[in-house]
From TrEMBL:
Transmembrane segments: none annotated. One of its GO terms (molecular function) is transferase activity. This is Sugar transferase. It comes from Mojavia pulchra JT2-VF2. It comes from the Bacteria.
Length: 331
């Protein structure tokens, strides 16, 4: 069985609803969806999906505990990550819940497309699923142009483990990918963990923990992978990130130079931003109307209306706020 999966908790509730609605806009309720819980904060999600029979919240505790233990063991082997994380929080493990997406390798779907909760589906995924007939890993992004958020480039072992060609073409964003159940079983995980404990953990980039671990797992295992961004012609491929400002909107679908996007990723935008807008704050951000359309697809009467001038989501703070911040005061 094929399906789509994502990772969420109630903190990203509004984004999750928009994603689920965008999937329904393409597939109706024929495409099953599995939500992997970031943590136990899922009361609103649980209530919502009672109205969505094709959507399930993953509850295999053994699977989640095994993956939690696996990633903690990985970061225990890293030479500096935990010292760095303790400087920014009270936890020596940083965003462990993001790794729960790995439960898809145990999950209900034989083949799946994983989509971050801050994405929207814009097209059917037949091309992605078809490519899984030839490969065990399929992505569609341009992360290969920027290795800095995937691996520690200063790690001596990086170029011992991976060839320059691999580092130029095989890295990917962990926000959208397609794969298959069972490709990382317990034996595979033990082999990878052993290599990491032997010193290879130094190549991991600690501030994007799930992304660096997933890239390592795929590339170190030699899994056959395929990136549509590297194989489609220039006339066929599209962008996918909210940072691209040239997408055109037609009937609530985005197009890149006339070509329909596969998905839109609101990468880099805080979940708080979406919550604030849904609560009625007039904060503008790229492709806000697209998000609001899907968020309120089934309840348009609840969509917030804005009458005042919008604030720009990334506008610099006012002079008074900068002064208060410098003094350590709330402004």
């Amino acid at each position: 069985m094929d399906g789509i999966c994502t990772l969420a908790n109630d903190r990203v509730y509004d984004q999750l609803i928009a994603l689920l609605n965008s999937i329904e806009a393409i597939y109706g309720q024929e495409m099953p969806v599995c939500i992997y819980p970031y943590d136990e904060n899922t009361a609103r999600i649980t209530a919502e999906i009672t109205h969505r029979p094709h959507v399930q919240l993953y509850d295999n505790q053994d699977s989640m505990q095994q993956w939690d233990e696996f990633v903690r063991n990985i970061w225990d082997a890293h030479p500096s990550a935990q010292k760095q994380w303790l400087k920014i929080s009270n936890d020596k493990y940083y965003r462990v819940g993001t790794h729960r997406r790995f439960c898809a390798f145990d999950g209900p779907f034989d083949r799946f497309v994983y989509m971050d909760a801050d994405t929207l589906l814009m097209s059917p995924l037949e091309e992605i699923f078809t490519q899984l007939n030839q490969n065990d890993w399929v992505v569609y992004d341009f992360q290969y142009l920027d290795i800095t958020h995937v691996y520690n480039q200063l790690a001596p072992k990086l170029t011992e483990i991976f060839t320059p060609q691999q580092l130029q073409t095989e890295i990917f964003c962990s926000g959208f990918y397609a794969s298959k159940k069972g490709i990382f079983n317990a034996q595979n995980r033990d082999i990878l963990l052993d290599k990491l404990r032997q010193g290879e953990a130094e190549v991991l980039y600690s501030m994007a923990p799930d992304q660096t671990v997933l890239n390592y797992m795929v590339m170190r295992s030699g899994i056959s992978n395929y990136n549509l961004a590297l194989h489609l012609s220039n006339s066929e491929k599209t962008g996918c990130c909210v940072t691209s400002t040239h997408f055109e909107t037609r009937n609530n679908i985005l197009y890149d130079k006339g070509k329909q996007l596969t998905y839109l990723h609101y990468i880099g935008l805080s979940s708080n931003l979406f919550t604030q807008v849904c609560q009625g704050e007039n904060i503008d951000f790229p492709y806000r109307d697209i998000f609001l359309h899907y968020r309120y697809l089934h309840e348009p009467e609840k969509r917030p209306t804005f009458t005042n001038k919008p604030k720009v989501y990334n506008e610099p703070p006012s002079l008074s706020k900068r002064i208060f911040r410098k003094l350590g005061l709330k402004g």
